[in-house]
Amino acid sequence: MARRKIKQELISNESKRKVTFKKRKGGLLKKIDELTTLCGVMGCAIIYNTFNNRPEIWPSPPELTRVLNRFKESPEEERDKYTMDQKILLGRHISMSSNALEREIKKNRGLEVDLILNEYLAGKSMEDLTCLEDAKELDLLLEEKIKLITDKIVTMSLKSKEVIVKNANEK
Amino acid sequence: MARRKIKQELISNESKRKVTFKKRKGGLLKKIDELTTLCGVMGCAIIYNTFNNRPEIWPSPPELTRVLNRFKESPEEERDKYTMDQKILLGRHISMSSNALEREIKKNRGLEVDLILNEYLAGKSMEDLTCLEDAKELDLLLEEKIKLITDKIVTMSLKSKEVIVKNANEK
DNA sequence: CGATCTATTTATAAACT
DNA sequence: TAGTTTATAAATAGATC
């Protein structure tokens, strides 16, 4: 949107694509920052870079911090509405998540989007857990993560196109 | 940005805030859509609404679908670079994720952002798993999820402000 | 590459319906 | 409360350094 209008399709020229990615990445971050500030909501963006590079991501912790602090400073009554005993709910919650069965159910239901995000989060955890080790080891882990995620993408795209589309249309 | 420039701070008037949220939510979605299309990357946004309403989110499955399909249609050689045997990596990966110890480590390292996102994802899975049950039950589960997430936010904001800030600054 | 500079295109705040 | 309009603020494509 500037000197010339551009078609909404993959930019073929790689250098132009990189420039556009960088510019728009910044713009998007700013937009999220403004939205969370102006409207008092928590938000984050997760963007995978091209498959030839390591994924670039922004969980945007600054925004989360700001909103958490705002909530902390809100009147007690407002908070108290949401702080009742959660034991039973937690029990049900735990029983239904983070197990192999649920994973299979999600797979069969075409919830690949969930799996991708979980993969990313697991990967990020690994990265953070190893941040104190030496750089070589960290680089190796990063490379491995990228392969892991990409492999999953390939597998899914080959096997589950229809389910993904179905899932997307329902949202 | 229009008839008048507005301050970058929480909009006090609730109706104005809601209008702005809706408009900017749409704008943000469009921006993500354009970025993923133009630059060939996967992306999604997760936005929690105010604490008085249920969270609004966009994992933007359409974008994911498009990028997955684009990758599927890419030349074989390009794909093959990323599809080598992942067994060893998977082994290491699994050993390090989805267990109570890692959760405690993450907590102690101030990775609250991870915990929030995992909570969201777990919640979303529950929602999808129950989508075939009756509406009353689904509503109940949704309410529970909101309480669960909000409770976690309260706990974190009361106990971990400093760690979160530290974590945010490092990113 | 990365930073700057504009001509344009977009996004959007406020007003209005 | 949800669209539509419009004047203005922002974002950004292409050029240049």
From TrEMBL, chains A, B:
Top-rank taxon, per record: Eukaryota
The UniProt keywords, alphabetically, are: DNA-binding, Nucleus, Transcription, Transcription regulation
Q: Which cellular components does GO assign to this protein?
A: nucleus
Q: Where is the MADS-box domain?
A: 1-50
Pfam families in the cross-refs: SRF-TF
Task: List the subcellular locations.
Answer: Nucleus
The reply to whether Nucleus figures as a keyword in the UniProt entry is yes
Signal peptide range equals none
Which InterPro entries does the record associate with it?
Answer: TF_MADSbox, TF_MADSbox_sf
Is Transcription regulation among this UniProt entry's keywords? Answer: yes
Spans through the membrane = none
Which molecular function GO terms apply here? DNA-binding transcription factor activity, RNA polymerase II-specific; protein dimerization activity; RNA polymerase II cis-regulatory region sequence-specific DNA binding
Q: Which SMART domains match?
A: MADS
Q: What is this protein called?
A: MADS-box domain-containing protein
Q: Can you name the source organism?
A: Dipteronia sinensis
